[in-house]
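Researcher: Structure prediction, please.
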Amino acid sequence: MSQTQQALSTFDQVFRSLLLSKFFTKGWGRPENLRNLFQLRQRMTKQYKCYELLSANPPAVHITSESTRGSVRILEGKFRSPLAEFHPEMLEPPVGDAVFQVVLPVEWPKNAKRLKPMCIQLAGTGDHYFWRRRTLLAKPLAIENGVGSILLENPFYGSRKPKDQVRSSLNNVCDLFVMGACLVMESLVLLQWCEQQGYGPLGLTGLSMGGHMASLAATNWPKPVSLAPCLSWTTASCVFTQGALAGAIPWNVLQKQLHSDEFKGADKLSTVSWLAQEEQKLLNNDAFAMGQEFARNYTPSTTTAPTSKADDTSFGWAKSLLHIRRTATDGEVLQFMTGVMDEFTHLCNFPTPVDPTLVIAVAADKDAYVPRMGVPHLTDLWPGAQVRYIQNQGHIQAFIFNRNLFRKTIVDTLQLNADKYY
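Model: Predicted structure follows.
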C-alpha cells in the first residue's frame, strides 16, 4: 500500500508540533562510537554470530521479586547488559543495567500441548518503566489469552536514563544505535532464559520504535520466533528525516558538529591517491553514501600514518569529510543522517528471520511518524511476512484506538508458531 505526503495524518503533524521536546540536542555523539557500533553490527549480520557470542558467556539473570496482583503474577528481574561488557565506554552505569518485569497468568490455560506462550514487549518512544505496557497489553494478554509477557525497560529510559538526559530526548544520534544494540542483545538473553524456564512458543513485539527494535532482535535469533511489529517499518531513517519527528531535531547543531574538528579524523595525514574518489562524492552531493561510509570507516584522529589498505581507506574517508564543513547544506545533512540511520537500522542490513511466515506487522495507512514513501516494503525484504493495515488513521490515532488489534496480532503470531513448531 503506497503513501503520499498529502495522505499522511494532519493529526500526527499537529500533535507533534504541540510537543516541546527535542532529540539529539548534543549532536551526533562520539565518532569512534559509530565505528565500534558498525563493527558490532557486522557481527550481527553474520548469521547468528551475536547469539553465539552470548551463548558462550551469557549474563546471569536474577529474579529479584515475585508477587500476585489480582489475576496476574508479576516477576521482577535484572541482568547486566552484554553491551556493557563488550563496550563499557558506551554505557554509563545506569544504562548498562537491564531490568525487566514478567507478567504471567495465575494459572496457565489447560491445553493438550501444555504450552506457555511468552512475548517480549519492547518499549516505544516515551514509554518509561512498565506501567503502560503492563496495563494496556500484558495484563489483558495474560487474563484473556493465557499469554505471558516480558517487559524490558529501554536503555536511556526510566531507571536506565542518564542523569543529563531530559525525559525521552536522547542526547546524541549515537545513543539511538547504542539503544538498539543493547535491546538486540538483551532480547536474546531473555529468549534464552525463556527456553530455560520452559516457556514457548516465544515472540517479540513492540509499538513504534519498540516494533522496530523487536524486528532487529528477531533477525538475530537462530530459531523460529513470532514477531508482531506494530506501527514501525523497515528502517528508522524515514522517521527522523521525513516523518513528524524530523521537526524535533536541531539540524543546525548536527550540521555545525559535522563541520567541526571532531569529525575530521585525519587532518595531519597526507593525501592518498584514492582520495579523489571520496572528494567526488562531495561534488556529486552523495551525502547519503558518505553517511554510510563514515559509520563504517571512521578512525579517530592520529599523527601516525596508516600501515594497511584498510586503514588507508578509513583515514582517507575522514580526510575527505573535511570538505563537508565547507559545502554542507541542510539537504546534505539530511542525506548524511539518512545514510547513517540506514546503516544501523535498515532491515536489509540484517539476516532474515528463520521463518518470516511468523511475522505479522501492523501499519497505519496515514502514519506521519513512520512514513513509508520510498522505503522498501516489509514483504519484499521478508517474503512470507504479512502486513495488516489500519485504514484512515495516523500514528497517534492508531496507537490509541487499536490496542485490541495489537493484542490479536500478537496472539495470532504465537498461534502460527505453536501450530507449526509445537
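Model: Residues 265-283, 300-329 have pLDDT under 50 and may be disordered.
Researcher: Thanks, that helps.
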